[in-house]
């Protein structure tokens, strides 16, 4: 009985050893470690570690698994023909180390360590590589705006880059935005009811901390009816001398400008000379020169501006004086040398004395 008991014990032990070895041989390969997500700058270096267990008899691959998978290595052999890539295998830790130098923007994506057990059975682990990229404002961002006064304006700004850029809006010369602040953060800047004071250059600035960022200038034109200001509503001049009447027009689109007297439109001739000078897209200075003034030319002159948004007019009164007003009456003498100015002054005094004694 005792011998039988010993035999049974030995047999059980042998059976346990066989089962143990069979179980060990049948263990499924696993990936015990994969490098965590990596964020690198362009031109830097990255290394991916993939530690495997029970994979001695299996093929271990590195792939870039984005839209179209790219095989990088098989076992301890590098497949990709790119000098920036290298592969090392550490047998002590059963770790495959894939290194990429001089990282480029196109290297960003998902990298997969894979143990091929069979055609249909694979064990995989992924690691994400993100490459910091400076912001680039997209072409689908707003480039310019033309809107009528009172309408709603929407400006959009989008940018690519990593990390995701922040979009900040500013105005030229740090003017206050229609949001009543110096800056506004967001992809879309809305102006609910645009005013002519809102026109000008807006800056869309994209920043993500990589390089100096990107900027786009957006020109906003606001269409509005003319507004006229007259610097000198009343002007005096003596008979037979010239006088310039001026009006300043603010309007967009640029208006048609006319001068009238007694409801009659004036034109360039021996009595009048009209000139317009645009100082900016929205500003025009108009000057009417009354030449060698006659009695009938005294009175009210009307400067009138019209565009498709409306019209405006302003009056300038020209009245008679005894003494000529310089300039433009004595324009040449006014800019002449001291002797000529003195001679002109004596002549004017003489004219004044003659008129006084005549009375």
TrEMBL record:
<keyword id="KW-0393">Immunoglobulin domain</keyword>
<dbReference type="Pfam" id="PF13927">
    <property type="entry name" value="Ig_3"/>
</dbReference>
<dbReference type="InterPro" id="IPR003599">
    <property type="entry name" value="Ig_sub"/>
</dbReference>
<dbReference type="InterPro" id="IPR051170">
    <property type="entry name" value="Neural/epithelial_adhesion"/>
</dbReference>
<feature type="domain" description="Ig-like">
    <location>
        <begin position="226"/>
        <end position="317"/>
    </location>
</feature>
<keyword id="KW-0677">Repeat</keyword>
<dbReference type="GO" id="GO:0043005">
    <property type="term" value="C:neuron projection"/>
</dbReference>
<dbReference type="InterPro" id="IPR013783">
    <property type="entry name" value="Ig-like_fold"/>
</dbReference>
<dbReference type="InterPro" id="IPR007110">
    <property type="entry name" value="Ig-like_dom"/>
</dbReference>
<dbReference type="InterPro" id="IPR003598">
    <property type="entry name" value="Ig_sub2"/>
</dbReference>
<protein>
    <submittedName>
        <fullName>Lachesin</fullName>
    </submittedName>
</protein>
<dbReference type="Pfam" id="PF07686">
    <property type="entry name" value="V-set"/>
</dbReference>
<dbReference type="InterPro" id="IPR036179">
    <property type="entry name" value="Ig-like_dom_sf"/>
</dbReference>
<keyword id="KW-1015">Disulfide bond</keyword>
<dbReference type="InterPro" id="IPR013098">
    <property type="entry name" value="Ig_I-set"/>
</dbReference>
<feature type="domain" description="Ig-like">
    <location>
        <begin position="29"/>
        <end position="130"/>
    </location>
</feature>
<dbReference type="InterPro" id="IPR013106">
    <property type="entry name" value="Ig_V-set"/>
</dbReference>
<feature type="signal peptide">
    <location>
        <begin position="1"/>
        <end position="25"/>
    </location>
</feature>
<feature type="domain" description="Ig-like">
    <location>
        <begin position="135"/>
        <end position="221"/>
    </location>
</feature>
<dbReference type="Pfam" id="PF07679">
    <property type="entry name" value="I-set"/>
</dbReference>
<keyword id="KW-0732">Signal</keyword>
């Amino acid at each position: 009985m005792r011998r039988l008991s010993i035999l049974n014990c030995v047999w059980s032990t042998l059976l346990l050893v066989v089962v143990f070895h069979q179980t060990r041989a049948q263990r499924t390969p696993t990936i015990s470690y994969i490098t965590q997500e990596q964020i690198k700058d362009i031109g830097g270096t990255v290394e991916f570690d993939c530690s495997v267990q029970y994979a001695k008899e299996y093929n271990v691959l590195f792939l870039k698994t984005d839209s179209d998978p790219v095989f990088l290595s098989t076992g301890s052999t590098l497949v990709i023909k790119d000098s920036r890539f290298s592969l090392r295998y550490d047998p002590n830790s059963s770790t495959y180390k894939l290194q990429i130098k001089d990282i480029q923007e196109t290297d960003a994506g998902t990298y997969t360590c894979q143990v091929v057990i069979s055609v249909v059975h694979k064990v995989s682990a992924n690691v994400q590589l993100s490459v910091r990229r400076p912001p680039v404002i997209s072409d689908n961002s707003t480039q310019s705006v033309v809107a009528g006064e009172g309408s709603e304006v929407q400006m959009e700004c989008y940018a690519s880059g990593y990390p995701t850029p922040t979009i900040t809006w500013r105005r030229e010369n740090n003017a206050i935005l229609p949001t009543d602040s110096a800056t506004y953060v967001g992809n879309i800047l809305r102006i609910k009811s645009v005013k002519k004071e809102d026109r000008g250059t807006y800056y869309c600035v994209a920043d993500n901390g990589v390089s100096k960022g990107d900027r786009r200038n957006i020109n906003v034109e606001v269409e509005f009816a003319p507004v006229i200001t007259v610097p000198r509503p009343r002007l005096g001049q003596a008979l037979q001398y010239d006088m310039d009447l001026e009006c300043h027009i603010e309007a967009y689109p640029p208006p048609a400008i006319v001068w009238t007297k007694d409801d009659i439109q004036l034109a360039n001739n021996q009595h009048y000379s009209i000139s317009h000078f645009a100082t900016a897209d929205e500003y025009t200075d108009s000057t009417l020169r009354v030449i060698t003034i006659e009695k009938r030319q005294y009175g009210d002159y009307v400067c009138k501006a019209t565009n498709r948004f409306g019209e405006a007019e302003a009056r300038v009164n020209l009245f008679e004086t005894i003494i000529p007003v310089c300039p433009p009456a004595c324009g040449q003498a006014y800019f002449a040398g001291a002797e000529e100015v003195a001679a002109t002054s004596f002549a004017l005094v003489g004219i004044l004395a003659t008129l006084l004694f005549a009375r």
